[in-house]
Specification:
Elements (H helix, E strand, L loop, with lengths): L3 E4 L8 E4 L14 E5 L5 E8 L4 E8 L6 E3 L7 E2 L5 E8 L2 E8 L6 E2 L7 E7 L6 E6 L13
Antiparallel strand pairs: 1-2, 3-4, 4-5, 5-6, 7-8, 8-9, 9-10, 11-12
């Protein structure tokens, strides 16, 4: 039987096998690391952390075999793993248009996957080979009505 224990971070339990001896243990987690999501191969966790620049929550990837966490301050918290575990896909809204971007885990700049010029993206999912996408797009309509008690 391997010398290991099961552990979890954050609110929702995510089973992660770590050596009980501490060898190869995870380095300190980024500030406020939470909502971990294991990579498809189970070797990494992607989760939210509190970023100071830019302010707000962003994504970090923690290798479970040791090594420092990889911080992605430009990746928003709506990120999902690619099927091969090599990328994070996330949404960017600019000028009222939503687009899917890809951030390689190995490093380098994020690149756009889609190039829409209008409408928001509400949900997206890639095929395992990342060549086909299911994307739910549309607009958000809202009205404001002022009700006054004056006669």
């Amino acid at each position: 039987m391997p010398d290991a224990v099961w552990s979890h971070f954050g609110g929702d339990p995510v089973p992660v096998e770590l050596p009980a001896s501490g060898a190869g243990s995870v380095n300190p987690l980024p500030e406020g690391f939470h909502e971990p999501e294991p990579s498809p191969d189970g070797r990494m966790l992607a989760g939210h952390f509190n970023s100071r620049e830019p302010r707000g929550e962003r994504m970090a990837v923690v290798p479970l075999d040791g090594g420092p966490p990889r911080l992605f301050p430009d990746v928003t918290i709506n990120a999902d793993w690619s099927a091969d575990g090599k990328n994070l896909f996330f949404l960017v809204v600019s000028g009222g248009a939503g687009n899917v971007w890809r951030q390689p885990i190995a490093g380098g700049p994020a690149v756009p996957v889609t190039r829409f010029s209008e409408e928001r993206i509400f949900r997206f999912s890639a095929s395992p080979d990342q060549k086909r996408w299911a994307i739910v797009r549309g607009t958000v309509a809202s009205d404001v009505v002022l009700v006054s008690g004056r006669e």
